[in-house]
Amino acid sequence: MGSYMENLTLETLSDLPLFQGIGKIELARFSASVPHRLKRYAKGEKLAEQDQKCQQLTLTLQGIVQMRTRSDNNRFAFSERLQSPVLLQPEALYGITPHYTHTYTALTETHALVIPKAGVTQLFSHFEVFRLNLINLLSTIIYRQGRWLWHDLSGDAEKRIVNFIHAHSVYPAGEKVLEISMEDLGLQINEPRMNASNALKRLQQAGLVSLKRKKIIIPALEKLIQAR
Questions:
Q1: Residues 96, 166: one domain?
Q2: What's the CATH code of the domain at 201?
Q3: β-strand 103-106 against 64-70: which pairing, if any?
Q4: Statement to judge: residues 139 and 197 lie in one domain
Q5: Helices (H), 17-156
Q6: Residue 2: predicted pLDDT
Q7: 3-class SS of residue 211
Q8: Residue range 183-205, pLDDT digits in tens
Q9: Which pLDDT belongs to residue 172?
C-alpha cells in the first residue's frame, strides 16, 4: 500500500482536476506534510451517507460508485452510477450546513484519497493552484444549479419526465435509476397518473427507459435528453 500511495501521489494525482498544475515537488510536499490517507472500500461499503456531517474531502481514484439521493419526504429516490475519479461533494465541507446530501456506495472495490478538513485547510494555505482548482469546481457547481432554475420545464408528459430526471442528475450522462410510484411521479410532473404511465411506456418502447415495479431505469441519460 505504501509504494502504491507514493506512485499515486506523484504520478496519478497530477492528472486529477483538483491537483492539475501542481508540480511533482509540490506533490511531494503534500505527501510529506498534509494529513491524508488512501482508503480501500469493499464492494457494498458506504463512503458517505446522506445527512452525515462532512468532515473530509474524499476523492475516489479507482472503482465504480453509486450516488443515491432520497427526497426529504422519502417518497422517491434517485441513483447515479459514477466511474472514478469522483470528488464527493466538496461543497459540503464548508458552510452553514456541512452535511452530505447524497449517499455514496462502492459498487466495486474502490480506492479513495481521503483528506481531513484540517488537511484541506493546509492545502488552501500552501498551494495556490489547489485553491484555484477547488474554487473553479465549486463555481461550476453553483453555475449549473443557478442555470437550471431558468430551464424550460414546459411540454408534454414525456418532456416533463425527462426534465424531472435531468434536474435530479448531478451528471447528465450514464445510467440513472429513479425509485418512485406512478402516483408520486404524476404529482412531481403535474400530470395525471395515467398520463405519466403512458408517457413512460412510450419512452420504454423507444428503448430509452426500462420499467420495473416502482422503478425507472435509464441506461444512458444523454440519449434520453437528446431524444426529447
A1: no
A2: 1.10.10.10
A3: antiparallel
A4: no
A5: 24-33, 117-126, 128-148
A6: 46
A7: strand
A8: 999 999 999 999 999 999 999 99
A9: 85
- In this predicted structure, the answer to whether residue 147 has a pLDDT above a threshold of 70 is yes
Helix then strand then coil, in percent of the chain rounded to 5, is 45, 25, 30
The grid coordinates of residue 83 equal 466511474
Q: How many Å apart are CA 195 and CA 6, to the nearest integer?
A: 56
Are 143 and 166 in a shared domain? no
Q: Say how far apart CA 108 and CA 65 lie, in whole Å.
A: 7
Taking alpha carbons only, the member of 98, 109, 4 closest to residue 47 is 109
Judgement on whether residues 138 and 176 belong to the same structural domain of the protein: no
Are 176 and 94 in a shared domain? no
User: How many degrees, rounded to 5, is the angle at CA 80 between CA 182 and CA 161?
Assistant: 35
Distances (CA, A) of 128 to 36, 37, 50, 198, 206: 18, 22, 31, 54, 49
136 and 163, same domain (yes or no): no
Q: What is the pTM of this model?
A: 0.88
Locate 94 and state its grid cell.
Answer: 464548508
Query: 7: which residues sit within 8 A by CB, 6+ positions away?
Result: none
Say whether pLDDT at 5 is over 80: no
**In the chain, how many domains are there?**
2
Same domain for 122 and 35? yes
- Out of 117, 148, 179, a domain closes at 148
